[in-house]
Write a structure and sequence with these properties.
alpha/beta, 6 strands, 263 residues, six-stranded parallel β-sheet, 13% strand
């Protein structure tokens, strides 16, 4: 996935990896190449600019310029800032063994949200928890049927209602009651509706579910191939819902890696 950005950064840093004295001028030249490599990998412009500012502040410090191997120090700073850009390294879900953990999945239509719900249910099941999938997407044709097929393949219960007689909020509320009544359900995975673009109706629907059910975690499912659009949609969802994490799908379709870094 990161093949494109790796090649670009390696080329940008090669001129600074031959030893010798670093100066403010060649550091800035090197950073200009690093920024170009990030932008060519489809990293969001604001993200790339902020990244370069942080690296510049560190790289132009007296400790780096006067060190024995300033080039290695500089490369180390770029490497550490890339790690920082990707955020915390704790990828666990922190599920409780008592009560019902509520995980709300959201994302644009076509991002792979329903399939990801199934993958998450399988992971949860393998971890020793009993999950239930909730078909709360009443907009997309066959979304409920798709989730039922996935649940059947995994041996996981799927809660659904007639879309003509219910609402997404009611489906989620009734699913929670059913899970609590069952007694052994520990993880409720809410497959909410998506749209082809972010709109007010979608956000209002998701905000209502968020307020009423108060999910323990809200995860955004994002298509890695959408590049800059992934950044814009992630920001819109986070502004409305305050996301706990992001699941990037279709990573094999994008070698640039910009969407991952930007989101």
């Amino acid at each position: 996935m990161f093949e494109g950005i790796t090649t670009g950064l390696r080329s940008a840093l090669s001129s600074l990896s031959r030893g010798g004295k670093l100066t403010e001028a060649n550091v800035r030249d090197g950073l200009a190449l690093v920024k170009k490599a990030l932008l060519e990998a489809d990293v969001n412009y604001d993200v790339a600019t902020t990244f370069i500012k942080r690296v510049t502040a560190e790289a132009l410090g007296e400790k780096v310029l006067k060190s024995l191997r300033p080039d290695q120090q500089f490369i180390g700073i770029v490497h550490q800032e890339l790690i920082n850009l990707m955020g915390p390294t704790d990828h666990s879900l922190h599920l409780r063994r008592d009560g019902v953990n509520k995980i709300m999945m959201c994302g644009l239509q076509g991002s792979g949200k329903t399939t990801t719900c199934g993958k998450l249910a399988r992971m949860v099941k393998e971890a020793g928890f009993t999950p239930m999938l909730v078909a709360a997407d009443l907009q997309r044709p066959a979304a409920i049927e798709q989730l039922k097929i996935i649940g059947q393949q995994l041996g996981v219960a799927v809660y659904s209602e007639d879309p003509a007689k219910s609402t997404p909020l009611l489906v989620c509320q009734n699913a929670l009651k059913a899970a609590q009544k069952a007694g052994d359900i520990r993880v409720l995975i809410l497959d909410t509706a998506g749209r082809l673009h972010v709109d007010a109706e979608l956000m209002k629907e998701l905000e209502l579910i968020d307020r009423r059910l108060q999910p323990d975690q809200i995860l955004l499912v994002c298509d890695a191939m959408t590049g800059q659009d992934a950044v814009n949609s992630a920001k819109a969802f986070n502004d409305a819902l305050e996301l706990d994490g992001v699941v990037l799908t279709k990573l094999d379709g994008d070698s640039r890696g910009g969407a991952a870094l930007s989101v």
